[in-house]
């Protein structure tokens, strides 16, 4: 087990006495709330690798700090648990006095950041939220609401209600944290002025409370802001991820298998439900193509599947020493990732594609047809002529169902492209745009001669290749969402000017 | 091996049904032939081995769609899930799953039957039609994808359904019984030559799902209901009591049995709450006299002209009565055309799946029929059947016709 300190405030003051040795910690500079990436753990010379639990530390002078422990077994990093330690012994009176002053200012600053975030978040929430929820609840309570003929409205109201209730819950949480923090801060300030007001233990616990409030406010606020970025029209829909091996035979098939594993692990980590819809195995290893279905997790985790994954669309390039290559030479391979929202029939029915733009072929075509032949192959391929987009569907036994499914997928893809290319109408989509959205190389995975994963769009990079391939995509995707939001804002500003 | 090849499996052998007597002889010959060839035991083989060998075997015997056949039969023999089985199978290509003795026995039996051109639908006992799993038994016609198109055409484009004219047909009756709680407005559908029953069942389910949801939605919105409160109440009363009644007729007792089975299984809930009623009876189109008239008539009648060359799995197994209809394939269609006025409400529609050569012939036949009516029958009220349109299937063939039963003769 590895232990590291993640509080910026006190790092430089820390001295830790363990049961075995007394060592000074390396100062590590981290943001107060950031989760330490495992690369940091590895790069930092830690003396305590053999320690089993942090409460064996006896904190000497620093009075307080935050410990986090990571289980690091093989490749798996489990979620960090936070443990706070407060030293109550060995007080150097002067030193403590000095610390407490700086300490309070830092705490205050941190809390101010949290409060700013809280207030800016609060602005985005409708002020009449309670009324909205009440209105919806009244409607649901009406006995006729659940009548069969009310289904459309029914679904709409239920989803709205759960959305607003969640928002309400969130706002209440924030407010209560903020109020707690305010109170703690007030008392601390009073204590600072008058030493006799609280015992040192009480002051410590107040400081602890204040920090906890700021911490929660910032964490939840950041999360909320990230979710706000996922506000595209289809972002809350489930999505279909299609991984296709590029040229390169076995190596490319293996790369698809790696990507599949990466997305599976990531979905699991983020609380999404992931389902394998289709797999075409490769000739030797891996897959020629894999189709995944990502939907919101059961326990409320993993919201906005399409919004979260849509940035993964594009070409992923891998450079490594290929195990499938006779000379074990360095090889470059590609895999295509396509992400499309899984839309309601309601959304799709609005989309009209002129029949002349479609070329529908069935595997069974040719010959007399009708009662004259009895074929079971029901595959259907639909080609959208203006864009050259091709969708094939083979999974159903019924040809009509395959056609239906293929049409839905085609529409979903067209919609996604229209949105991406900022085209108002589907009929404006041209072939080169489709090409562009497919062919863009979005991320490089270089495993040799050095290790680096770099996102082409944001410049985000990591050298911790293994963790990334194990599904640690969160930072990379968050970065992309922020960059895209910024671009969007700039674009808007430009058009306004 | 030689035996099978000599009877059914020769690559260039064609199957012609020139006359019906000839056909019966053919059938008897086939039935009497006792095939002893069964594939060798495959117990302990891995799935890829089984697949590879079986595909080769089917190819040797020139069986239609060897790969799909093997996949479907294996899914059945291994008792895999109906919906995900084929995918599961493809996932085993790299694993060492081997056939157990009982699976092997089952699979070899299916495979040997397939070697005799038995349709896959019969071997599995069921197949998908739209999103319904339909039980199928020999010698009923296995539903074709064109028929799915026919059903969806009726659901989406039928005038009676779209305009709700069936409802106005019943309006007099409804107004008379306005204070009576037992008022109901049935949409009555006739399926001529129902076979497995899929058309009627799918239609009833789709219509009660799509249309009535829409109807009740529009009746509750203020714009569509007329200003008087009476009408509003009427509409509401009716929309909640609307029922789809399907009358299915066929000349094959097996068809009646199977279509009832399918209806009971697929429409359980809706039959229970009386939003759908399904009734199948053993009667020919010629002899059928309904108790009440219909708003929509649908049919996938036998329409193949005599003498056409069919693939073995069709002509050896599927009922001749469900496929062939006289010299030009119009025998049953003509009967339907004649009977339509007697069966139908005014402005009823009739949809049929036909041979691509038929639409012009049907137009001609209707012209003749209407002339007869004019010449021999002075009763102006006699209804005529008008040809509205023919539609292409997704393979570009003129496959469907839509007819309208008029109330008054048009000029």
UniProtKB/TrEMBL annotation, chain A:
Record flagged with keyword Cell cycle: no
Keywords: Protein biosynthesis, Signal
InterPro entries: PCRF (IPR005139), Pep_chain_release_fac_I (IPR000352), PrfB (IPR004374)
A GO MF label: translation release factor activity, codon specific
Signal peptide: 1-19
PANTHER family the record matches: CLASS I PEPTIDE CHAIN RELEASE FACTOR (PTHR43116:SF3), PEPTIDE CHAIN RELEASE FACTOR 2 (PTHR43116)
Listed name of the protein: Peptide chain release factor 2
Automatic annotation (TrEMBL), chain B:
GO biological process: methylation
Protein's recorded name: Protein-glutamine-N5 methyltransferase
Molecular function terms, GO-annotated: nucleic acid binding; protein methyltransferase activity
Record-linked InterPro entries: DNA_methylase_N6_adenine_CS (IPR002052), HemK-like (IPR004556), N5-glutamine_MTase (IPR050320), PrmC_N (IPR040758), RlmKL-like_Mtase (IPR000241)
Domain Ribosomal RNA large subunit methyltransferase K/L-like methyltransferase: 185-304
Residue stretches making up the Release factor glutamine methyltransferase N-terminal domain: 49-125
Keyword list, A-Z: Methyltransferase, S-adenosyl-L-methionine, Transferase
Pfam families tied to this protein: PrmC_N, UPF0020
GO-annotated cellular components: mitochondrion
UniProt-annotated stretches for the region Disordered: 217-237
């Amino acid at each position: 087990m590895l232990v590291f300190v993640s509080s910026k405030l006190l790092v430089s003051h820390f001295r830790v006495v363990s049961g075995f040795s007394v060592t000074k910690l390396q100062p590590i500079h981290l943001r107060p709330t950031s989760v330490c990436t495992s690369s940091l753990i590895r790069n930092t010379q830690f003396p305590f690798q053999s320690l089993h639990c942090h409460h064996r530390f006896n904190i000497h002078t620093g009075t307080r700090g935050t410990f986090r422990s990571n289980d690091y077994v093989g490749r798996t990093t489990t979620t960090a648990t936070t443990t706070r330690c407060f030293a109550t012994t060995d007080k150097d009176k002067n030193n403590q006095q000095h610390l407490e002053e700086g300490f309070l200012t830092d705490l205050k600053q941190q809390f101010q950041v949290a409060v700013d975030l809280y207030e800016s978040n609060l602005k985005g929430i409708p002020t009449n939220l309670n009324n909205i929820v009440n209105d919806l609840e009244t409607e649901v309570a009406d006995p006729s609401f659940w009548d069969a003929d009310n289904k459309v409205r029914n679904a709409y109201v239920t989803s709205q209600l759960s959305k607003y209730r969640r928002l309400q819950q969130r706002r209440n949480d924030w407010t209560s944290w903020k109020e707690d923090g305010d109170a703690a801060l007030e008392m601390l300030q009073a204590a600072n002025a008058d030493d006799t007001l609280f015992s040192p233990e009480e002051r410590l616990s107040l400081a602890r409370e204040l920090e906890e409030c700021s911490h929660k406010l910032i964490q939840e606020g950041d999360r909320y802001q990230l979710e706000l970025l996922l506000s595209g029209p289809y972002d809350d829909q489930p999505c279909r991820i299609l991984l296709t091996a590029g040229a390169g035979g076995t190596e490319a098939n293996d790369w698809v298998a790696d990507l599949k594993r990466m997305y599976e692990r990531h979905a699991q980590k983020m609380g999404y439900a992931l389902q394998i819809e289709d797999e075409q195995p490769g000739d030797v290893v891996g897959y020629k193509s894999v189709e995944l279905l990502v939907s919101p997790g059961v326990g409320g985790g993993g919201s906005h599947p399409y919004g979260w994954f849509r940035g993964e669309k594009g070409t992923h390039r891998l450079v490594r020493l290929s195990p499938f290559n006779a000379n074990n030479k360095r090889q470059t391979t590609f895999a295509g990732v396509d992400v499309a929202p899984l839309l309601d029939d309601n959304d799709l029915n609005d989309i009209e594609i002129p029949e002349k733009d479609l070329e529908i072929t069935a595997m069974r075509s040719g010959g007399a047809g009708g009662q004259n032949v009895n074929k079971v192959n029901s595959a259907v391929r639909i080609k959208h002529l203006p864009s050259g987009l091709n969708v094939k569907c083979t999974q159903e036994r019924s040809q009509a169902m395959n056609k239906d499914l293929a049409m839905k997928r085609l529409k979903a893809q067209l919609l996604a492209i229209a949105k991406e290319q900022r085209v108002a109408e589907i009929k404006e989509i041209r072939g080169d745009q489709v090409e562009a959205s497919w062919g863009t190389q979005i991320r490089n995975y270089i495993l040799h001669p050095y290790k680096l994963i770099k996102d082409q769009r944001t410049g985000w990079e990591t050298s911790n290749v293994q963790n990334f391939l194990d599904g640690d995509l969160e930072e990379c995707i968050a970065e992309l969402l922020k960059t895209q939001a910024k671009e969007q804002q700039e674009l808007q500003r430009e058009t306004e000017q | 091996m030689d035996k099978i090849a000599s009877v059914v499996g020769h690559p260039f052998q064609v199957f012609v049904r020139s006359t019906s007597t000839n056909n019966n002889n053919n059938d008897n010959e086939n039935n009497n032939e006792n095939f002893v060839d069964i594939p060798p035991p495959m117990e302990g083989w891995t799935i890829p081995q089984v697949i590879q060998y079986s595909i080769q075997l089917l190819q040797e015997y020139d069986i239609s769609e060897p790969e799909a056949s093997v996949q479907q039969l294996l899914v059945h023999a291994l008792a895999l899930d109906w919906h995900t089985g084929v995918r599961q199978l493809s996932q085993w290509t790299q694993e060492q799953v081997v056939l157990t003795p009982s699976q092997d026995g089952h699979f070899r039996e299916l495979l040997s039957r397939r070697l005799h051109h038995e349709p896959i639908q019969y071997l599995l006992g069921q197949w998908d039609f739209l999103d319904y799993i339909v039980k199928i038994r020999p010698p009923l016609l296995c539903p074709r994808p064109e028929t799915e198109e026919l059903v969806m055409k009726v659901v989406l484009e039928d005038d009676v359904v779209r305009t709700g004219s069936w409802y106005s047909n019943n309006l007099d009756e409804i107004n008379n019984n306005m204070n009576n709680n037992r008022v109901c407005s049935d949409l009555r559908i006739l399926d001529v030559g129902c076979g497995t029953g899929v058309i009627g069942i799918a239609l009833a389910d789709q219509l009660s799902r799509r249309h009535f949801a829409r109807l009740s939605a529009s009746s509750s919105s203020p714009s569509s209901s007329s200003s008087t409160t009476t009408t509003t109440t009427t509409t509401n009363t009716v929309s909640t009591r609307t029922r789809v009644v399907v009358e299915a007729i066929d000349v094959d007792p097996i068809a009646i049995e199977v279509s009832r089975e399918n209806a009971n299984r697929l429409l359980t809930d809706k039959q229970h709450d009386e939003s759908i009623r399904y009734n199948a009876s053993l009667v020919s189109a010629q002899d059928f006299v309904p108790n009440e008239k219909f708003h929509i008539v649908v049919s996938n009648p036998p329409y193949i002209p005599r003498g056409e060359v069919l693939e073995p799995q069709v002509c050896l197994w599927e009922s001749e009565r469900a496929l062939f209809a006289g010299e030009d394939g119009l025998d049953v269609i003509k009967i339907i055309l004649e009977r339509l006025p007697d069966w139908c409400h005014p402005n009823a529609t009739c949809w049929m799946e036909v041979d691509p050569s038929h639409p012009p012939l049907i137009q001609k036949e209707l012209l003749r029929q209407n002339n007869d009516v004019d010449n021999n029958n002075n009763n102006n009220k006699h209804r005529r059947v008008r040809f509205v349109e023919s539609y292409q299937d997704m393979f570009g063939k003129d496959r469907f016709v839509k007819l309208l039963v008029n109330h008054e003769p048009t000029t």
